[in-house]
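Hi R.,

As promised, here are both runs. First protein below:
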Amino acid sequence: MQTFAPIRPFVSNPDFAAQRRAALSGLAEAEIDAPIAGIIAALNRLPHCFTLQCCYGHFLYPGQADEHNLDPLPQGAEGIAQVKYRIAYVALCLDQGPAGRGLLADLGRITQLDPGNIQLCSADWFWQRQVNSFALQLEPERHKHRDTAMIPYSEAVYLEGLRKRLWAALAALLNR
């Protein structure tokens, strides 16, 4: 699936409040990856935001085929040359007012943790369903258009640490 498209400009969305209510009433909290459940809840408490989808980011490798695996990568690379990485991201819809624009700017600053691996974007398939939708994603630049990628084990170890920093930065932003 293609995940990346350049940031689109905000458009008028007079139905934002109704769309937010509908999205939050249909939210399946049990489907949210446990490590980010609090972050997603905090985003959804903001009156100028609601989440559309999210994923903590998962690593699959020989011996670990669970698509929703939350376990850390095994220490050492014995027999693991390549890892299938499932993108870490949060897709959200923002109100076009000052608070939504401010949150978008704050999310953009999070990309500075590692601009080669963290992107703030729009995704066409989200925008077609919900205007003013954006995604903060952790995916190597060369794979930024995809939701999964095969990467070397050493890069997976790096992304695992960066994933922790990304979610911590988003949590810190929401705790301000």
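And here is the second one, sequence first, then its structure tokens:
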Amino acid sequence: MKIQPKLVLILFLSLLTQNVFSQPKNDFIISQDFVPFLDSLIAPPVNCDAAWTLVITDSLNNKYVLISAIEEQDTKIQKIISEITTNLNLKKIKINAAPPSGKGPSENIPPGNTSPSIGGKISDDFRDIQEDFQDANLAITRITETKEEFKDEINDMQYKVNEKLHNTHETDYDAHITIINDFMLYTEKQYQKHKLVFRENMNKIDAIIKKYDYGFNIKSPRIKSEILKYQLSQSENLKFLSNITKEFTVIGANFYKEKYINSHN
């Protein structure tokens, strides 16, 4: 029996960002709610047939590319990541370069540090900000934990899938399709389950950021930076989900092509 020695499935669930940045802006603000963006994401396909509908074929060159809707959502997310990263770096430089005022604690102290006080009393406004940002931090932590859980599930399933693929004939296309379809269906179900956790916690973060008008009504550059960091985290998690859709579309399309196109050549 001939065993397929090289048919190994490899996933790259990294959140790589390109070094392509937009032109810096003064007092950069993103008035973006991320839950609607999350809701608009294209989910990973449930099987190889569905994956094939998410690609455009070039029959002349025997190639295919992802449909524009997938590429456009990914490009939009990447643009947000790049813009926020650039402006956070600029804010960091400005904050570090600012000379000390000599007036003691200032409004520029970020959440989690000593609060500014007047006559020994903590500012009520700052306490509200601090409490809100603690809630936002908890929401970010919950999303991060969920993302890591999802990655572990995919990696564990990937190992099992590779074992099954190794134990098939090289030309047993039906078996390959069955194995990959099971993997894709499992991933799509887990995607939808974990997306609910993402949504619940992104909704909390959106509400907190919107409460402060996305940073428009905040004078402190440090607190503005905290808001941008929350938005960066949200956009990076959207990138993670978008990567899953892209990768499983490619996987499904490759196996579809193997069975329905290559097998008939």
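A quick note on the second one: The beta strands are 55-58, 63-66, 117-118, 121-122. Let me know what you think.

Best,
J.
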